[in-house]
Design goal:
With about 375 residues, the chain is an alpha/beta fold. The chain is built from twelve helices and 13 strands. Strands 1-7-6-5-4-2-3 form a seven-stranded mixed β-sheet, with helices on both faces. Strands 10-11-13-12 form a four-stranded antiparallel β-sheet, with helices on one face. A two-stranded antiparallel ribbon has the order 8-9.
Length: about 375
């Protein structure tokens, strides 16, 4: 068992970094694993290919433990988006999705709808409808039924909303959707939220944010229900069997949702990240992140910055969205820049995202930036 302090010591981002929701600085252990696997690829001594081949099973094994499925229900991907595309093209019927979701999900569904001649039909929750809560989902399913167009077969939602940091109630959504598929884009919460993934049928995530494994890493997991209903449509040679002596057929289970071989070095990077996460426990990381989030709330309140994220611990993860007074976004952005604080600015807000590795020094730098902002009126 690893303590949370030992876990946090494995990160080396510079002070002032508060943008983990955009990109998580790569862990030291991940970089070391990359060096080791890179050396193996450089020399390719006898038996090296076996070591490289082992990385697929390695990452699937630890990912399966974290999600709560069997290893054969997990398949490696290069990011979240390919997993969502595989899922979207395998669906049939109406899929409830919010227009305000990160584009990966709506675009995947729109592409599938166009390519399949309407076999897949996005049922869109209009922009500005609010957080995707169980009550909102239930009301839209009921409205579809009343209109006589109740062919909603799946609901697609982000575990954590990229714009506000809202943490979706997966268990609550599962309760109201019944036997429909629940598809989860988990990228903005995987690694910092001890979520009930057993409520989901599809969990897609990448390793470049909260897992701090770098770009080119990810996986998607499928429940038995999902594997029974989804039809793989984008399978490549590594997602099929029989070739080269027979006409290829799609491999059973999650393996069918494979287009090409994943870089084994990327798989090793993600495996190390997930192994370290398993050693410390997601709940320990979530608790440390919650403490850092509270500090951001306190600083925001001290200097009169409006918080648009939920303050309810059950509705938040590592993202805090701040809205400065009208016409003051540039001033706040300049203050953060001048004090060496990295955060994301978009849509009139500043998105601050903390992690278990966020130090008191970093939060003090953030507070100093807020002082400069508050005194520049």
């Amino acid at each position: 068992m690893t303590t949370i302090d030992e876990y946090a010591a494995g990160f080396a981002e510079d002070p002032g970094y508060l943008d983990h929701a955009a990109f998580g600085p790569v862990q030291t252990a991940v970089l070391e694993e990359q060096r080791v696997l890179g050396t193996i690829q450089e020399h390719m001594r006898f038996g090296a290919m076996e070591t490289l081949d082992e990385q697929d099973a390695r990452v699937r094994a630890v990912a399966a433990r974290l999600v709560g499925v069997r290893e054969e229900q997990v398949v490696s991907q290069t990011a979240t988006t390919p997993g969502l595309l595989h899922t979207a093209f395998g669906l049939t019927g109406g899929v409830l999705v919010a227009a305000d979701e990160y584009p990966s999900m709506p675009l995947a569904l729109a592409s599938a709808a166009s390519a399949t001649g309407g076999r897949v039909r996005p049922v869109v929750i209009e922009s500005g409808a609010g957080w995707v809560t169980p009550s909102l989902v239930a009301s839209r399913i009921a409205a579809a039924a009343e209109s006589g167009a109740d062919d909603i077969t799946a609901v697609a939602v982000s575990l954590v909303d990229w714009r506000t940091g809202y943490l979706a109630d997966l268990a609550g959504i599962r309760e109201v959707i019944g036997d429909r598929l629940l598809i989860v884009d988990a990228i903005q919460g995987f690694g910092v939220v001890d979520a009930p993934y057993e409520a989901a049928d599809v969990v897609a995530t990448g390793g470049q944010k909260w897992l701090h494994a770098g770009w080119g890493t990810g996986f998607v997991s499928f429940s038995d229900r999902a594997l029974g209903r989804l039809q793989p449509a984008l399978s490549g040679p590594h997602g099929t069997t029989g070739w080269p002596v027979e006409v290829p057929s799609v491999r059973p289970g999650a393996a069918g949702f494979t287009m090409t071989r994943i870089d084994p070095v990327a798989q090793a990077r993600l495996a190390v990240s997930l192994e370290r996460l398993t050693a410390v426990g997601v709940s320990a990381v979530q608790e440390r992140v919650a403490d850092r989030v509270e500090r951001v709330f306190q600083i925001a309140d001290e200097f009169g910055l409006e918080v648009e994220s939920s303050r309810d611990p059950a509705e938040r993860a590592g993202i805090v969205v701040l809205r400065p007074a009208e016409g003051r976004l540039t001033a706040l952005s300049a203050a953060l820049h001048n004090h060496g604080v990295t955060a994301s600015t978009r849509l009139g807000t500043v998105r601050v995202s903390v992690f278990a590795s966020t130090t008191d020094e970093t939060l003090d730098m953030f507070r100093d930036a807020c002082i400069s902002y508050a005194t520049s009126f």
